[in-house]
Amino acid sequence: MLDALFRAAAAFMLAPALSLIGHAHQEPARRTRAWAIWGAVMGLTMVLAPLLGGAIATWLGWRWAFHINLPLCLLLTALSWRYIPESRDPVCRRVDAAGVLLFAGSMLAWTWALIRGPVEGWASVAVLPWLLSGAVLGTAFIVVERRRAQPMLDLALFRIPALVGAVIAMFAYAAAVQVMASLLPLLLQNARGDSVLQAGMHMLPFALAMLLLPFLGRRLGAHWSSGRILALGLGVAVVGNLGIAVSLWQHSDAGLLLAMAVLGSGGGLLNGETQKAIMGVIPPARAGMASGISTTARFSGILIGFATLGAVLSSHVRRAAETALADAGQGVSPALLERVVVGEMSTSPSGLGALARAAYAHGAAYAFLVAAAMALVAMLATARLMRNRQHG
After folding, report:
1. Which one of 5, 68, 91, 120 counts the least CB within 10 Å of its CB?
2. Are 361 and 248 a contacting pair, CB within 8 Å?
3. Each residue's pLDDT tens digit, 111-134
4. What is the C-alpha to C-alpha distance for residues 247 and 241, in angstroms, rounded to an integer?
C-alpha cells in the first residue's frame, strides 16, 4: 500500500514538472538552458544516489534510505510553495478515467507477460492470456481516446512526424539507457562481486557522463536540430551497450568502465534533448499534454525496458549457470539456479561464487545486446521522422 502511495506521489510530481519548466521559460534560449539544467539534475541524481545509497546502507542501515526522505520532502514542499508560479489551466477538464484505466491495464498486462514469458513459455496458459489482454486493452484505449472530446491523450498529435520521432527517442532512451541506473549496480555486484558501496563508486563513469553531457547537448543545439542530436545520442548509446556486452564476454574491467562512460554520454545527450524535442513540437498552449506524453513515454520505456531486459538477462543467466554447473559436476536444481539468477551466489566464498559471477556476466551481456538493438532501431526511426524538423 505504501509503495503504491510513493509511486502515485512520484507520478504527481513528474508529470507537471516539464510543463512547469515550459511555462516558466517562454524564451527559446532560456528554455534550452532550462532543459540542459533539467538533464544535468537528472544526471546528478545518478551520481549521488548510488554513492549516498551505498553509504547509508553500509553505515546506517537500509531503512534510513527512506527516513532521510522526510526532511528533504518537507524542504522541497516549502521551496515549491514559495518559488513555483501558478500555472492553472483556466479551462477545467474532467479526468479521463476510462483512458487511464485502459492504458494502465494494457501496460500491466504487457509487462507481466514479458516477465513470465521466458519462464513459462510465450504460448503457455500463464502468459498468452496476458498478451491478448494487453493487445485488447491497448486497442480499446485507442478507440476510446479517438472518441473523447477531451481525451487523456490527443492521438491527432501523433500525425506530426517529429513528435513521433521524439517520443520514440524518449522511449528508447528510457528503455536502453535510463533503466541501466538500476541494472548496472546489479551487474557490478553480481558479476564482479562488488559491495553496495563499491558498486556506487564504479557507477561514477556512467553517472558523471549523464551529469555533464546535457550541457554539450545545449551547445550542439545552437548548430544542430533536435533530430540530429537525438540520433547522435542514440548512436552513442548503441556503442556503449555493445561495449558493455563485449567487455563482459572478455572479462575486461577497464573496458566495462569505459563502455559505461560511453553509455552515460549517450544518455546525457538524450536526457534534456528528448524533453525539449517533445515540448518544442507541441504548441505552448498544450504544454500539459506535451508533459504527459513525455513522462508517459519515459516511464513506459523504463517499465517495458526493465521487464524486457530483465527477462533476457534471467533466461540467459539461468542457461549459462545450468551449463556451467553441469560441466563442474554440480547438482542442478531449480532452487540453486534461481539463487544464481538473483545474485545470491555471487558472494559465495566457494567455487560456486566464481561460477555464479561468470554465469551472470555471460547472461547479462545478452541483455545489453538487446538494449543496443533497441537504441539502434530508435536511432534509425528518429533520424528519418525528424529529418525535416527545422533547427530550434
Report:
1. 91
2. yes
3. 888 778 767 777 788 888 999 999
4. 10
pLDDT in tens, 307-319: 889 888 888 888 8
Inter-helix orientation angle 204-220/253-281, to 10°: 40
The answer to whether the Cα torsion of 133, 107, 379, 381 is positive or negative is positive
- Cβ-Cβ contacts under 8 Å for 144 (sequence gap 6 or more): 98, 99, 102, 151
Name, in order, each residue with C-beta under 8 angstroms of 3's C-beta and a sequence gap of 6 or more.
none
pTM of the predicted structure, to 2 decimals:
0.79
CA distance linking residue 166 with residue 173, whole number of Å: 10
Contacts of 265 (CB under 8 A, 6+ apart): 209, 213, 236, 240
Quote the DSSP letter at residue 331.
-
The beta-strand segments (E) located in the chain are none
Non-local CB neighbours of 240 within 8 Å, separated by 6+ positions: 177, 259, 260, 261, 262, 263, 264, 265, 266
For the chain, the straight-line distance linking the first and the last C-alpha, in angstroms and rounded, comes to: 44
CB atoms within 10 A of CB 344: 13
3-class DSSP state of 149: coil
Query: What cell numbers appear for 155 in the block?
Result: 492521438
Helices and strands (DSSP H and E) totals, the chain: 15, 0
